[in-house]
Amino acid sequence: MALTLHPHYSRPRKRFGAALDNLMPGRMIFIIGPTGVGKTTLRRSVMREVYGHPKHWPKGKIPAIECSARLPSESYFSSFSLAKSLLKQLRVPTLRWFEDNGKSTLPADVLKGLEAAGDWWGAREGRKLTESDTWDCVEQMLRARACGVISIDQANSFLKNRANKRPTDHTLHLMAFAEEANISFIMTGVPEVVRMWSIHSELRRRVDVIWVPPYSERRPEDRQAFATLIRSRASHYPNCDVRALLRYDAEVLAATGGVIGELDKLLERASALALEEGGGAINWSRVERSIYSQNDLETMWNDIHMFEEAMAAGSVSARSSQIKEFWE
Questions:
Q1: N or C of the chain: less Cβ packing under 10 Å?
Q2: 280 within a domain of the structure (yes/no)
Q3: Measuring CA to CA, which residue among 236, 275, 238, 225 is closest to residue 4?
Q4: How many domains is the chain built from?
Q5: Minimal CA–CA distance to 184: which of 25, 15, 44, 67?
């Protein structure tokens, strides 16, 4: 999915690029936004710009790897499983962050060159490793690959823990590991992921947060940008009545929360409905009948409100009044 940029996307993109250029070992960058807002697309596009094409990397070296912390149904997060996933990416990297629309852009000779450090693992592959051993192997492979950044998608999976584990336990472990291995982490997730650091002062000081907002009626400048988005996404459907969508832009925003991914899904459902009804245009009637149920709309908007509350600046007025009293 190509990311349609407007000021509220270009600014977080620039902030992320600057943070990546000046990333210090042991720190974490969190990219946070509602599901479907374009966080992964934004992150991958900046990583491609910062790290350049793999054909220019030294043989067998990888500046960054990417993996997902997505959990199977009814599962708890496991740092052991994460370590295994990282080890797999370091040995045979997929480099999905360098692919465009799911299609590999890497020549065969580049892919072969990336296997150069895999021999290091060969002598250990048959061993049954403990969790500690596996993390040690990850550290050694990071050094062998000259890899300085680990990007983890679906970081909110860290929040699903057994009773004796807290999200901050995992964050502290990763920060300690990052310092030891001389690397940094990029974590991508939905707003609730702030629980990974919000209750721990040391973590708050070592976390950089990039907020990726949806389009919003609260920002008047977003209306024209949202209209541009509608035109862009509707252009994928030759039979779509774009003028009708623009005429009902407020309804489209209400139906999608201003989230790119939700707009795409709405158009997909309207297109399927048009086919079911014998073809014809994706008109407003079909779009309207493709809108989520009331319960689903409320769930979507609750997620967006959670994001807005997490992103909003805190108030220091009460505390500053107390400080002034003491200073006076």
A1: C
A2: yes
A3: 225
A4: 2
A5: 25
Within a domain: residue 96? yes
Residues 6+ positions from 37 with CB-CB distance below 8 Å: 212, 213, 214, 259, 260, 261
Determine contact, residues 203/45, Cβ cutoff 8 Å: no
Q: Long-range contacts for 172-177 (Cβ within 8 Å, ≥24 apart)? A: 172/200, 172/202, 172/203, 173/79, 174/28, 175/26, 175/28, 175/203, 175/206, 177/135, 177/139
pTM beyond 0.70, yes or no: yes
CB 313 within 8 A of CB 271: no
Let me know if residue 324 belongs to a domain.
Answer: no
Q: Which conformational region is residue 265 in: left (phi greater than 0), alpha (psi within -120 to 50 degrees), or beta? A: alpha
Give helix 39-51 / helix 7-21 axis angle, nearest 10°.
Answer: 40
Mean pLDDT, the chain, rounded, equals 85
- pLDDT, one tens digit per residue, over 139-179 is 999 998 999 999 999 998 888 887 677 778 888 889 999 99
Judge if 177 and 229 occupy the same domain: no
Tell me which residue range forms the domain holding 240: 222-311
Give, in order, the Cα–Cα distances in Å from 294 to each of 254, 272, 284, 305: 11, 21, 18, 16
- Write the CATH number for 256: 1.10.8
Q: Which of these three, 211, 245, 261, is where a domain ends?
A: 211
Residues 293 and 171 in one domain: no
